[in-house]
Design goal:
- It is a single chain.
- By secondary structure, the protein is of the alpha+beta class.
- The chain contains ten helices and 22 strands.
- The chain has an eight-stranded antiparallel sheet with strand order 8-7-6-5-4-20-10-9. It has a five-stranded antiparallel sheet with strand order 1-22-21-3-2. It has a four-stranded antiparallel sheet with strand order 13-14-17-18, with no helix packed on it.
- Helix 2 runs antiparallel to helix 5, helix 3 packs across helix 4 and helix 8 runs antiparallel to helix 9.
- The longest helix has 30 residues.
- It is elongated.
Length: 478
């Protein structure tokens, strides 16, 4: 009695997890919560999500909705216990559903095709009848040829009382496509859980020339990298004369045990990857407090063609080679503009149009002062024929990096490949069975054709029609 009760309980649990209703419910919950998780910025500052929720629910309800979603764990839902539990429940349901149905599928696959009766053929969804003027012995080879022409090869043949029966089955393993797809979903879920539990998503803003061995999570928590990363340089290229960035690039070095092990310049969509941690180019900015401490890189070409390069700071002086002219760095602007009165001013606190103010002297006698703009090289042409190129102001910008580690990403890729294979098998390979009976009918042959397919029945029916057409054509051309 006790064993029977235990069996009933086990059956109930098994049936619960094998339920399609459970699969639909859990899948709907995952989809719904994922939509909410997409709208709410994960691990973001509360103010950002309060602003988002205020737009959706109104200013008065925004803070209340934030409080509710926060208590439910939606601010970091992909690391929450309940979302992981949903994924595990979905996985268990998927496994048990597959195990529940797999034995029946395997039995269908293993069962050999057997001859059928006339009545069975007539009851198939696909059934055709053709009368040809000839005895079955003369028709049989033509039927076989027509079958081969439409891809029905490797068929079996038996002799019957009034003629012959030819039959075959194809694509039996196509029934496993759905299980390959289920398996791929499990692989993807495992990859996702690995990423959620053992990975991270953070950021790092590094000024030029600075080394860091940590990144920061979105809530400001330090994440040790296990190595050091240095921003060697940063630069922005703009569209024409506009302030719209065309491309921004960072030159990075990875340092391990005091040695540079990797150097790479990165742009958006071309990250640096080291030890499973990926550094994406995501933002940049100007550091105002560093404006007076950066290093100016000037390229100078004298009118005689002699070139030289200087690394200077504000207040430094330089001499143009082969001349008595010298220059003194007076000022710097990250974004210089001139108003209608000819007055220069800084219009934004970004390096959109960097310029340097230089006073020029001839034998210590002041000659003139002017701005040289980096994006407008013609401003560096001096009246005496010398040319100055403002190459860079190093050390005053930072590069913004998105830092991500996802140990499950390759598992997810593997799952995606498996899913592609599974879906291809599931949608494009059908299990087909075809029977053709050639029956002597007085001096004629009656040909009965029956066919079954677990999917894509229309395609199989077209192929049967083509077989009949070929058969008639071959017979008429005898």
């Amino acid at each position: 009695m006790e064993k029977e009760n235990n069996k009933k309980l086990t059956d109930k649990i098994w049936n619960f997890f094998a339920s399609i209703k459970l699969a639909i419910t859990v899948f709907a919950l995952i989809a719904l919560t994922s939509i909410i998780g997409t709208i709410i910025e994960q691990r973001a500052d509360p103010e950002k999500n309060i602003q988002i929720l205020s737009k959706l629910f109104g200013e008065s309800l925004g803070p209340t909705m934030f409080s509710i979603f926060d208590k439910l764990g939606f601010m970091d839902m992909y690391h929450s216990w309940w979302f992981t539990a949903l994924l595990i429940l979905f996985s268990v349901n998927l496994i048990i559903c597959s195990l529940e149905r797999l034995p029946k599928t395997l039995k269908i696959i293993k069962d050999p095709i057997a001859p059928v009766s006339d009545e069975q053929i007539k009851n198939f969804l696909i059934n055709k009848e053709v009368i040809l003027k000839a005895k079955p012995d003369k028709i049989k080879d033509k039927v076989a040829l027509a079958m081969s022409s439409v891809g029905f090869k490797n068929f079996q043949e038996i002799k019957e009382d009034k003629g012959y029966q030819l039959f075959l089955q194809k694509g039996r393993y196509g029934r496993l496509g759905v299980y390959v797809t289920h398996f791929s979903i499990l692989i993807i879920l495992i990859g996702a859980i690995l990423g959620m539990r053992f990975g991270f998503n953070g950021y790092l803003n590094i000024p030029e020339g600075v080394v860091s061995n940590i990144a920061f999570s979105t809530n400001g928590k330090e994440i040790p990298l296990g190595f050091e990363i240095r921003c060697d340089n940063f630069d922005v290229e703009f569209y024409g004369a506009s302030d719209m960035p065309k491309e921004y690039r960072s030159w990075l070095s990875i340092i391990k045990d005091g040695q540079i092990v990797v150097q790479k310049s990165i742009v958006v969509n071309n990250p640096l990857v080291y030890k499973g941690i990926t550094f994406y180019q995501s933002s940049y900015g100007f550091i105002p407090e560093n404006a007076g401490r950066g290093i100016l890189l000037l390229g100078i070409t004298s009118r005689e063609g002699k070139t030289s390069e200087f690394q200077l700071r504000l207040g430094d002086t330089f001499h143009i080679p082969g001349s008595t002219i010298s220059g003194k760095i007076l000022d710097f602007s990250p974004a210089l503009k001139v108003d209608e009165h000819g007055h220069a001013f800084t219009y934004t606190n970004q390096m959109n149009n960097p310029a340097v103010l230089i006073a020029f002297f001839d034998s210590d006698k002041h000659k003139y002062t002017g701005w040289i703009l980096r994006r407008y090289p013609e401003t560096g042409q001096l009246p005496e024929g010398h040319r100055i190129v403002f190459k860079d102001y190093w050390g005053v910008e930072y590069t913004g990096l998105q830092v991500r580690k996802d140990p499950g990403v390759w598992v997810v890729y593997l799952g995606c490949i498996a899913m592609s294979i599974g879906l291809f098998i599931a949608f494009f390979i059908s299990h087909r069975k075809v029977w053709i009976k050639i029956i002597e009918d007085k001096n004629n042959s009656k040909i009965l054709i029956g066919a079954l397919a677990n999917k894509n029945r229309v395609t199989l029916e077209k192929k049967i029609d083509k077989l009949i057409s070929i058969l008639r054509k071959n017979h008429e051309g005898r």
